[in-house]
Design goal:
Layout lengths: L1 E6 L28 H10 L8 E4 L4 H7 L5 E7 L10 H7 L26 H7 L3 E8 L21 E2 L2 E3 L1 H6 L7 H4 L1 E4 L3 E7 L11 E5 L9 H12 L2
């Protein structure tokens, strides 16, 4: 199934970098949302003309719970100002040193802990991959972004490898490792997860070539101004059934 996973912070003139501590909205004077016409042109250029089944959510962590109930495997097209793979928070230590140690039971390990040091809206995609739901991930990044990839999660620690490969690590080593030296020995790698195809592309160059199965549209109030809500309503009306 093709999942179009969209965050409203993609449709801003700049990127909010830091994870907010509250749902306080960004200032309207500083962050300007796209016009309805610009958003419609983006969807048209992507080859998206009709409505698809979908849902609107508040925080992106909710997408993890939605994906759990979907037919697998998932091919996710992630349209966002952030990769949501964990750059910027310490949740990767929990993922690599604890969560991945739990065995899969069907297509699920256990319910992950939530919070800044665990699973959150900035790393939920890594946890979806950890449960082996994802066959491929395409990161359609903001024209000013795309550099926020967490190297630890990529094959050979290389974000240009075209493959995500999560690593199961020794808890003690992962918690005291030096992240300036990226190696299996330094991380205490005990085993590696199956590879997942990965592609990164600017929103300026993105085109859809296959039908969409489902749309997840996220408000992300801490990363968007209130002025974005009208654009979100427009996208919901025009593209989500």
């Amino acid at each position: 199934m093709i999942i179009l996973d969209i965050d409203m912070d993609f449709f801003l003139d700049r990127i909010a970098r830091d994870m907010p501590e509250t749902d306080r909205r960004l200032p309207n004077k500083t962050y300007k949302p796209w016009s309805k016409e610009a958003a419609a042109l983006f969807f048209k250029d992507c080859g998206i003309f009709t409505k698809s089944p979908g849902v609107a959510i508040k925080d992106h962590i909710e997408a993890f719970k939605i994906m759990r109930e979907m037919p697998k495997p998932l091919n996710i097209v992630h349209i966002d100002a952030h990769s949501d793979l964990g750059e910027g928070d310490p949740g990767w230590k929990y993922l690599m040193g604890e969560y991945l140690h739990h065995p899969l039971k069907g297509d699920y390990r256990i319910t992950p802990k939530e919070g800044y040091r665990y699973m959150n809206s900035g790393n939920y995609l890594a946890f979806a991959i950890a449960n082996r739901w994802v066959k491929s991930l395409t990161y359609v990044h903001h024209p000013l972004g795309g550099s926020d990839l967490l190297r630890y999660h990529f094959k050979g620690y290389d974000t240009g490898s075209g493959k995500i490969q999560l690593k199961i690590c020794d808890p003690e080593k992962i918690n005291r490792c030096s992240t300036t030296i990226l190696s299996d020995t330094n991380f205490g790698v005990m085993a590696k997860e199956p590879e997942v195809d990965f592609m990164k592309i600017s929103g300026l160059n993105f085109r859809m070539s296959v039908p969409i199965g489902y749309i997840i549209l996220c408000q992300s109030p801490g990363f968007t101004p209130k002025a974005s809500d009208k654009l979100m309503e427009f996208i919901m009306k025009e593209y989500i059934r």
